[in-house]
Amino acid sequence: MTHQEIHHITLTPEPSGRFQPTGFANLGAALYDQPRPDGEPVKMLLVESVQSMANHLEGTGWNLLEDQPVTALARLPWVRVVAKSGEYLTSSRTEAHRLASAFVRNSTLNGDNFLDILEQRFGLVQDRPVNHTQLARAIFRLDPINLIHGVFFAVKKWPHQPKITRAITAFIEAENVQEVHSGGVKTDDVRRRTTGTAGRSAEGYGMVPFPRVEYTAATTRLHVAIDFGLLNSYGLSKEATRLLGLVARWELASLLSGQLRLRTACSFRLAEDPPGPFSDPSDLAEEVDSLARQCPELGDADPVTEVIWNPKGRA
Questions:
Q1: 0.85 exceeded by the pTM?
Q2: Given a cut of 90, is residue 253 above it in pLDDT?
């Protein structure tokens, strides 16, 4: 049976009760009714999606100024993607598809196609099932964050398209919401009127009014589930398995340690002290570093795998 650690964390909007939720193309805000067995349905709002929260969680482990992992995760493997000139381009930590990113896959390592190297390390063979332990170990050695947030290799030329599902799922919902309608005007002090002129509002000229919809809510909660059963199923060493769970907790603790600013006009603080496992990210960081030193899957190898991106796709 899968063991999940589940938390429901109450949030308070700042600086007031109004906030701007995430929006979706051709949909806008995600509003829906939550049925109640003992009464009328409650109007709900998805404030932050699973995908967006994954980005926020992963972002806690990356130093944008130095283009490398933060100190707490410095011992964990990752793939650095550079141009032929050696200039940093991106990484398995910052790409939307992680190790499955086109920039990672369509690169070379020591002159060999990285896509072929991945296929070999993953042990993908025609007419044979995927060896999930070998797959997990290979991914762990390249970038263990992929085993926490998931990765899908949709490579048609491979005999299999291996997929790792998320081990941590987080999203923010607001309950009993009300719309707040307001608006504004984009000003133009040079060309206030566009009638009879060549440049109009479509080109960015003139005074352009716009509507705005924000929300208030009776309650806003961050819901988190960490699937320790899934992490245990990979067949890694006890040190590696525990390390994955600690990194997931460290990411969440780091995210909750300050103001949760998701976007413009959407900031939250904790309404109460965070649950015990997420109270002090610095303590968790020390445990992560200690376990990384003990992992037999890692040894003393350089944590960075540097590959050279090939715009044409193959060497």
A1: yes
A2: yes
